[in-house]
Protein backbone atom coordinates (compact mmCIF):
# COMPACT_ATOMS: atom_id res chain seq x y z
CA UNK A 1 0.00 0.00 0.00
CA UNK A 2 1.41 3.33 -1.04
CA UNK A 3 1.34 6.44 1.10
CA UNK A 4 1.30 9.92 -0.33
CA UNK A 5 3.47 12.77 0.86
CA UNK A 6 1.98 16.27 1.07
CA UNK A 7 3.97 19.02 -0.62
CA UNK A 8 3.49 22.77 -0.65
CA UNK A 9 5.04 24.57 -3.60
CA UNK A 10 6.68 27.95 -2.98
CA UNK A 11 6.73 30.71 -5.60
CA UNK A 12 8.74 33.84 -4.89
CA UNK A 13 9.04 32.96 -1.21
CA UNK A 14 5.26 32.63 -0.69
CA UNK A 15 3.74 29.27 0.14
CA UNK A 16 0.96 28.18 -2.17
CA UNK A 17 -1.86 25.99 -0.90
CA UNK A 18 -1.89 22.56 -2.55
CA UNK A 19 -4.42 22.13 -5.34
CA UNK A 20 -7.52 20.13 -4.41
CA UNK A 21 -7.27 16.44 -5.15
CA UNK A 22 -10.01 13.94 -5.85
CA UNK A 23 -10.47 10.89 -3.64
CA UNK A 24 -12.41 7.76 -4.45
CA UNK A 25 -14.13 6.24 -1.44
CA UNK A 26 -15.22 2.58 -1.56
CA UNK A 27 -17.51 1.51 1.27
CA UNK A 28 -20.49 -0.50 2.47
CA UNK A 29 -23.56 0.48 4.44
CA UNK A 30 -26.62 -1.04 6.04
CA UNK A 31 -29.52 1.02 4.77
CA UNK A 32 -32.09 0.28 7.48
CA UNK A 33 -31.82 3.73 9.07
CA UNK A 34 -31.04 5.66 5.88
CA UNK A 35 -33.61 7.26 3.60
CA UNK A 36 -31.49 6.21 0.65
CA UNK A 37 -28.12 7.59 -0.36
CA UNK A 38 -28.95 11.04 -1.72
CA UNK A 39 -29.48 13.92 0.71
CA UNK A 40 -33.05 15.17 1.07
CA UNK A 41 -35.10 17.53 3.20
CA UNK A 42 -36.34 14.93 5.69
CA UNK A 43 -34.51 12.03 7.26
CA UNK A 44 -30.90 10.87 7.47
CA UNK A 45 -29.26 9.60 4.29
CA UNK A 46 -25.97 7.91 3.48
CA UNK A 47 -24.70 11.06 1.81
CA UNK A 48 -25.51 13.08 4.94
CA UNK A 49 -23.64 10.62 7.17
CA UNK A 50 -20.51 10.61 5.01
CA UNK A 51 -20.56 14.39 4.57
CA UNK A 52 -20.77 14.90 8.35
CA UNK A 53 -17.82 12.55 8.87
CA UNK A 54 -15.78 14.44 6.25
CA UNK A 55 -16.48 17.71 8.04
CA UNK A 56 -15.45 16.25 11.37
CA UNK A 57 -11.95 15.33 10.16
CA UNK A 58 -11.52 18.77 8.53
CA UNK A 59 -10.45 17.77 5.05
CA UNK A 60 -11.92 20.82 3.36
CA UNK A 61 -14.05 18.41 1.36
CA UNK A 62 -16.74 19.00 -1.22
CA UNK A 63 -20.05 17.15 -0.97
CA UNK A 64 -19.48 13.44 -1.71
CA UNK A 65 -21.12 12.24 -4.94
CA UNK A 66 -22.20 8.61 -5.14
CA UNK A 67 -22.51 5.95 -7.81
CA UNK A 68 -26.28 5.48 -7.28
CA UNK A 69 -29.20 7.01 -5.41
CA UNK A 70 -30.61 3.83 -3.76
CA UNK A 71 -34.10 3.74 -2.29
CA UNK A 72 -34.85 4.30 1.38
CA UNK A 73 -33.89 1.17 3.33
CA UNK A 74 -31.77 -0.43 0.58
CA UNK A 75 -28.39 -1.87 1.63
CA UNK A 76 -25.08 -1.57 -0.24
CA UNK A 77 -22.46 -4.32 -0.07
CA UNK A 78 -20.38 -2.24 -2.48
CA UNK A 79 -20.73 1.51 -3.01
CA UNK A 80 -18.45 4.18 -4.43
CA UNK A 81 -18.34 7.96 -4.01
CA UNK A 82 -15.85 10.66 -4.91
CA UNK A 83 -14.95 13.85 -3.10
CA UNK A 84 -12.55 16.76 -3.68
CA UNK A 85 -10.40 17.73 -0.71
CA UNK A 86 -8.12 20.71 -0.08
CA UNK A 87 -6.23 19.29 2.90
CA UNK A 88 -3.45 16.85 2.05
CA UNK A 89 -3.50 13.70 4.14
CA UNK A 90 -2.55 10.15 3.30
CA UNK A 91 -5.29 7.78 2.19
CA UNK A 92 -4.59 5.75 5.31
CA UNK A 93 -5.29 8.77 7.52
CA UNK A 94 -8.50 9.53 5.61
CA UNK A 95 -9.81 5.97 5.87
CA UNK A 96 -9.04 5.62 9.56
CA UNK A 97 -10.34 9.10 10.37
CA UNK A 98 -13.63 8.58 8.54
CA UNK A 99 -14.26 5.16 10.07
CA UNK A 100 -13.67 6.65 13.52
CA UNK A 101 -16.22 9.38 12.79
CA UNK A 102 -18.88 7.20 11.14
CA UNK A 103 -21.45 5.06 12.92
CA UNK A 104 -20.99 1.27 12.51
CA UNK A 105 -23.74 1.08 9.86
CA UNK A 106 -21.30 2.55 7.31
CA UNK A 107 -17.69 1.46 6.85
CA UNK A 108 -15.00 2.56 4.41
CA UNK A 109 -12.83 -0.19 2.97
CA UNK A 110 -10.65 1.63 0.44
CA UNK A 111 -9.53 5.21 -0.18
CA UNK A 112 -7.59 6.14 -3.31
CA UNK A 113 -6.40 9.30 -5.05
CA UNK A 114 -7.78 9.45 -8.60
CA UNK A 115 -7.82 11.72 -11.61
CA UNK A 116 -10.00 14.83 -11.44
CA UNK A 117 -11.92 13.33 -14.38
CA UNK A 118 -13.12 10.38 -12.32
CA UNK A 119 -16.83 10.56 -11.44
CA UNK A 120 -18.38 7.93 -9.19
CA UNK A 121 -21.69 7.95 -11.07
CA UNK A 122 -20.70 8.54 -14.68
CA UNK A 123 -17.59 6.33 -14.65
CA UNK A 124 -19.56 3.38 -13.30
CA UNK A 125 -20.08 0.89 -16.14
CA UNK A 126 -22.27 -1.66 -14.36
CA UNK A 127 -24.21 -2.48 -11.21
CA UNK A 128 -25.44 -5.75 -9.75
CA UNK A 129 -28.45 -5.86 -7.45
CA UNK A 130 -29.65 -8.89 -5.49
CA UNK A 131 -33.12 -9.23 -3.99
CA UNK A 132 -33.48 -11.88 -1.26
CA UNK A 133 -36.76 -13.68 -0.60
CA UNK A 134 -37.11 -16.17 2.25
CA UNK A 135 -39.38 -19.08 1.34
CA UNK A 136 -39.15 -21.03 4.61
CA UNK A 137 -41.90 -21.07 7.23
CA UNK A 138 -40.19 -18.65 9.66
CA UNK A 139 -37.40 -16.20 8.79
CA UNK A 140 -34.51 -16.22 11.33
CA UNK A 141 -34.58 -12.91 13.26
CA UNK A 142 -30.90 -12.22 12.56
CA UNK A 143 -31.63 -12.26 8.81
CA UNK A 144 -35.06 -10.61 8.87
CA UNK A 145 -33.80 -7.00 8.37
CA UNK A 146 -32.07 -8.04 5.12
CA UNK A 147 -34.72 -10.11 3.32
CA UNK A 148 -38.44 -10.35 2.63
CA UNK A 149 -40.26 -13.36 4.09
CA UNK A 150 -42.61 -14.52 1.35
CA UNK A 151 -45.98 -15.89 2.38
CA UNK A 152 -47.47 -18.45 0.00
CA UNK A 153 -46.31 -20.56 -2.92
CA UNK A 154 -44.15 -19.43 -5.83
CA UNK A 155 -43.63 -21.19 -9.15
CA UNK A 156 -39.89 -20.56 -9.37
CA UNK A 157 -39.59 -22.15 -12.83
CA UNK A 158 -42.12 -19.64 -14.23
CA UNK A 159 -40.26 -16.81 -12.49
CA UNK A 160 -36.96 -17.87 -14.04
CA UNK A 161 -38.51 -18.04 -17.50
CA UNK A 162 -40.09 -14.60 -17.06
CA UNK A 163 -36.81 -13.13 -15.78
CA UNK A 164 -35.21 -13.68 -19.18
CA UNK A 165 -37.94 -11.56 -20.77
CA UNK A 166 -36.67 -8.56 -18.78
CA UNK A 167 -33.21 -8.79 -20.33
CA UNK A 168 -32.29 -6.37 -23.09
CA UNK A 169 -33.41 -2.79 -23.75
CA UNK A 170 -37.02 -2.02 -22.82
CA UNK A 171 -39.29 0.82 -21.75
CA UNK A 172 -39.62 0.39 -17.96
CA UNK A 173 -42.27 3.10 -17.48
CA UNK A 174 -44.40 0.81 -15.29
CA UNK A 175 -41.37 -0.20 -13.25
CA UNK A 176 -40.67 3.17 -11.67
CA UNK A 177 -42.26 6.08 -9.81
CA UNK A 178 -43.69 9.34 -11.13
CA UNK A 179 -40.27 10.90 -10.46
CA UNK A 180 -38.61 8.20 -12.53
CA UNK A 181 -41.05 8.71 -15.40
CA UNK A 182 -39.83 12.28 -15.80
CA UNK A 183 -36.60 10.83 -17.21
CA UNK A 184 -35.88 8.60 -20.18
CA UNK A 185 -37.52 5.35 -19.07
CA UNK A 186 -35.67 3.10 -21.52
CA UNK A 187 -33.05 0.99 -19.76
CA UNK A 188 -30.90 -1.99 -20.67
CA UNK A 189 -30.84 -5.02 -18.37
CA UNK A 190 -27.80 -7.12 -19.22
CA UNK A 191 -28.81 -10.05 -17.02
CA UNK A 192 -31.81 -11.08 -14.90
CA UNK A 193 -31.63 -14.47 -13.17
CA UNK A 194 -33.44 -16.34 -10.42
CA UNK A 195 -31.47 -18.68 -8.16
CA UNK A 196 -32.29 -20.88 -5.18
CA UNK A 197 -30.08 -21.62 -2.19
CA UNK A 198 -31.93 -23.54 0.50
CA UNK A 199 -34.86 -21.41 1.67
CA UNK A 200 -33.52 -18.32 -0.14
CA UNK A 201 -34.78 -17.25 -3.55
CA UNK A 202 -32.44 -14.66 -5.04
CA UNK A 203 -33.31 -12.35 -7.94
CA UNK A 204 -30.07 -11.11 -9.52
CA UNK A 205 -30.21 -8.11 -11.86
CA UNK A 206 -27.30 -6.52 -13.73
CA UNK A 207 -27.17 -3.42 -15.89
CA UNK A 208 -25.45 -0.07 -16.41
CA UNK A 209 -28.19 2.06 -14.81
CA UNK A 210 -31.62 1.75 -13.23
CA UNK A 211 -34.68 3.91 -12.61
CA UNK A 212 -36.05 4.78 -9.18
CA UNK A 213 -37.51 1.55 -7.64
CA UNK A 214 -36.95 -0.29 -10.92
CA UNK A 215 -35.30 -3.41 -9.46
CA UNK A 216 -37.88 -3.67 -6.68
CA UNK A 217 -40.65 -3.44 -9.30
CA UNK A 218 -38.92 -6.12 -11.36
CA UNK A 219 -38.90 -8.34 -8.28
CA UNK A 220 -42.57 -7.50 -7.73
CA UNK A 221 -43.47 -8.47 -11.29
CA UNK A 222 -41.59 -11.77 -11.06
CA UNK A 223 -43.26 -12.76 -7.78
CA UNK A 224 -46.64 -11.79 -9.29
CA UNK A 225 -45.92 -14.24 -12.11
CA UNK A 226 -44.69 -16.87 -9.64
CA UNK A 227 -47.91 -16.56 -7.61
CA UNK A 228 -50.17 -16.58 -10.68
CA UNK A 229 -51.36 -12.97 -10.47
CA UNK A 230 -49.63 -12.02 -13.71
CA UNK A 231 -48.67 -13.96 -16.83
CA UNK A 232 -45.66 -13.80 -19.09
CA UNK A 233 -47.92 -12.14 -21.67
CA UNK A 234 -48.80 -9.44 -19.12
CA UNK A 235 -45.10 -8.83 -18.54
CA UNK A 236 -44.38 -8.50 -22.25
CA UNK A 237 -47.31 -6.10 -22.57
CA UNK A 238 -45.87 -3.80 -19.90
CA UNK A 239 -42.55 -3.71 -21.74
CA UNK A 240 -44.23 -2.87 -25.06
CA UNK A 241 -46.53 -0.15 -23.72
CA UNK A 242 -49.75 -2.21 -23.93
CA UNK A 243 -50.32 -2.17 -20.19
CA UNK A 244 -54.02 -1.33 -19.73
CA UNK A 245 -55.22 -2.73 -16.40
CA UNK A 246 -51.79 -4.09 -15.40
CA UNK A 247 -50.14 -2.81 -12.24
CA UNK A 248 -46.60 -3.59 -11.13
CA UNK A 249 -45.93 -3.27 -7.39
CA UNK A 250 -42.50 -2.75 -5.82
CA UNK A 251 -41.44 -5.25 -3.19
CA UNK A 252 -40.13 -3.87 0.16
CA UNK A 253 -36.73 -2.16 0.14
CA UNK A 254 -35.16 -4.06 3.05
CA UNK A 255 -34.43 -7.14 0.90
CA UNK A 256 -32.58 -5.26 -1.87
CA UNK A 257 -28.79 -5.10 -1.83
CA UNK A 258 -26.56 -3.16 -4.21
CA UNK A 259 -24.17 -6.07 -4.50
CA UNK A 260 -21.44 -4.81 -6.79
CA UNK A 261 -20.36 -1.83 -8.87
CA UNK A 262 -18.01 -2.02 -11.85
CA UNK A 263 -15.46 0.55 -13.02
CA UNK A 264 -12.85 0.49 -15.78
CA UNK A 265 -9.49 -0.49 -14.36
CA UNK A 266 -7.35 2.55 -13.52
CA UNK A 267 -4.16 2.67 -11.49
CA UNK A 268 -4.62 5.09 -8.55
CA UNK A 269 -1.76 7.35 -7.59
CA UNK A 270 -2.29 6.44 -3.94
CA UNK A 271 -4.33 3.65 -2.38
CA UNK A 272 -5.01 2.38 1.11
CA UNK A 273 -7.21 -0.53 2.14
CA UNK A 274 -9.07 -3.26 0.29
CA UNK A 275 -12.44 -4.94 0.12
CA UNK A 276 -12.74 -7.52 2.92
CA UNK A 277 -12.62 -11.17 1.96
CA UNK A 278 -15.91 -13.08 2.19
CA UNK A 279 -17.80 -13.79 4.28
CA UNK A 280 -18.06 -10.10 5.14
CA UNK A 281 -21.68 -9.41 4.26
CA UNK A 282 -24.98 -11.06 5.09
CA UNK A 283 -25.69 -13.98 2.66
CA UNK A 284 -22.07 -13.86 1.47
CA UNK A 285 -21.01 -17.11 3.15
CA UNK A 286 -18.82 -19.37 1.06
CA UNK A 287 -21.53 -21.98 0.51
CA UNK A 288 -23.79 -19.34 -1.06
CA UNK A 289 -20.93 -18.14 -3.23
CA UNK A 290 -20.17 -21.62 -4.54
CA UNK A 291 -23.43 -23.46 -4.83
CA UNK A 292 -26.51 -21.39 -5.63
CA UNK A 293 -28.76 -23.20 -8.09
CA UNK A 294 -29.61 -20.93 -11.00
CA UNK A 295 -32.99 -21.99 -12.34
Q: Tell me how many strands there are.
A: 15
CATH topology of the largest domain: Alpha-Beta Plaits
Oligomer: single chain
CATH architecture of the largest domain: 2-Layer Sandwich
Strand count, sense and closure of the main sheet?
Answer: 11 strands, mixed
**Chain-averaged pLDDT:** 91
Report the uncertain regions.
1-11
Structural class: alpha+beta
Query: Mind telling me the CATH class of the largest domain?
Result: Alpha Beta
CATH superfamily of the largest domain: Pseudouridine synthase I, catalytic domain, C-terminal subdomain
Distance between the termini: 42 Å
Gyration radius (Cα, Å) is 21 Å
Described by the principal axes of the CA atoms, the overall outline is globular
The tally of domains stands at 2
Q: What's the total helix number?
A: 7
Element-level helix/strand string: EEEHEEHEEEHEHEEEHHEEHE
Overall description:
The chain has helices at residues 46-56, 91-101, 156-165, 178-181, 214-226, 232-239, 286-290; strands at residues 10-11, 14-15, 21-29, 65-66, 75-85, 106-114, 126-134, 148-149, 168-171, 186-189, 191-197, 200-207, 256-262, 270-273, 293-294. By secondary structure, it is an alpha+beta fold. The chain has 2 domains: 19-123 and 264-284, Pseudouridine synthase I, catalytic domain, N-terminal subdomain (Alpha-Beta Plaits, 2-Layer Sandwich); 126-257, Alpha-Beta Plaits, CATH 3.30.70. The strands form 3 sheets. Strands 3, 4, 5, 6, 7, 8, 11, 12, 13, 14 and 15 form an 11-stranded mixed sheet that branches. β11 (191-197) and β12 form a beta hairpin. α1 (46-56) crosses α2 and α3 packs across α5. The protein is globular, with a radius of gyration of 21 Å. The model is unreliable at 1-11 (pLDDT under 50).
Amino acid sequence: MKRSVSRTVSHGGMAQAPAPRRLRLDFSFVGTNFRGWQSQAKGKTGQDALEAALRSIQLGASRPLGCARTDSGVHARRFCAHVDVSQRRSCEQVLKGLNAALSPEMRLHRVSAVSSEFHARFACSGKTYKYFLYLGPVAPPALAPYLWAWQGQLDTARMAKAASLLEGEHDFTLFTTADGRERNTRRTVTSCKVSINGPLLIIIVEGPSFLHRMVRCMAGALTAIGSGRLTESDLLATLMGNSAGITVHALPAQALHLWDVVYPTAEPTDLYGDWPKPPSWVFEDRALQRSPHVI
